[in-house]
Amino acid sequence: MHGYGCHHGERHFGPRGFSGQISRALGRGMGGGFGRFVGDGELRLVVLALLEDAPRHGYDVIKALEEHSSGFYTPSPGVIYPTLTYLEETGHAVSAADGNKKVYSITTDGRSYLEQNRKVAEAALERIRRIGERLARARQWFDGSEGREHDRDIPEVVPEVNEARRALKGALAHRLHAAPPTQRKIADILRKAAEEIQALPQDPDDIDLG
């Protein structure tokens, strides 16, 4: 097993810029995880797991990971194609010409290697899925791109929460293009609010959002 260090060139989870600052602020308040990379060894196992499901082009691997993360994790071709090449060189995958492209399939050795490390692969896929879900939930709550008429209530919360959420979305929408110092102040406000919410005592009737 190779190391699980951060993959240089890997794309981050979530948006960049001001909205990225908001996501990071919220992520810290929710226990982190919003900016996680996928380690080299984990990514190889994840790709093998995808090839186990079906032979794929490199683009298919990228799209599969994007879909698995609710659209928030899109590894770059500069990461996926070298990973596929590495898997082929180690005998864990084999490629065949498909027009101007290559389609990759898992080999017997690849299946054996994946089976030996199944828990690591499944844990990485589950982490990608859960972080994607959390970011999708954050976007649903805080994205200011939709008007109020299209902003449906979040189910299973009291009306006051939806009203406060809309007020926050409106305030953010008007300050998305603020100067960086103002953006940082807004991020600090959101971070403090997230920390206060996270610090609230757990009630028996609380709904677990993961």
Describe the protein.
This protein has one domain (17-147, 158-195): Arc Repressor Mutant, subunit A (Orthogonal Bundle). By secondary structure, the chain is mainly alpha-helical. The protein is built from eight helices and two strands; from the N terminus they run ααααββαααα. Strand 1 (93-98) and strand 2 (101-106) form a beta hairpin. The chain has helices at residues 17-29, 40-53, 58-68, 77-89, 108-116, 118-142, 159-174, 180-198; strands at residues 93-98, 101-106. The model is unreliable at 1-19 and 21-36 (pLDDT under 50). Helix 2 packs across helix 4, helix 2 (40-53) packs across helix 6 (118-142) and helix 3 (58-68) crosses helix 4. The radius of gyration is 20 Å and the shape is elongated. 57% of the residues lie in helices and 6% in strands. A two-stranded antiparallel ribbon has the order 1-2. It holds the Pfam family PadR.
Keywords:
single chain, 210 residues, mainly alpha, Arc Repressor Mutant, subunit A, two-stranded antiparallel sheet, 8 helices, elongated, disordered N terminus, PadR family transcriptional regulator, WH-like_DNA-bd_sf, WH_DNA-bd_sf, Tscrpt_reg_PadR_N
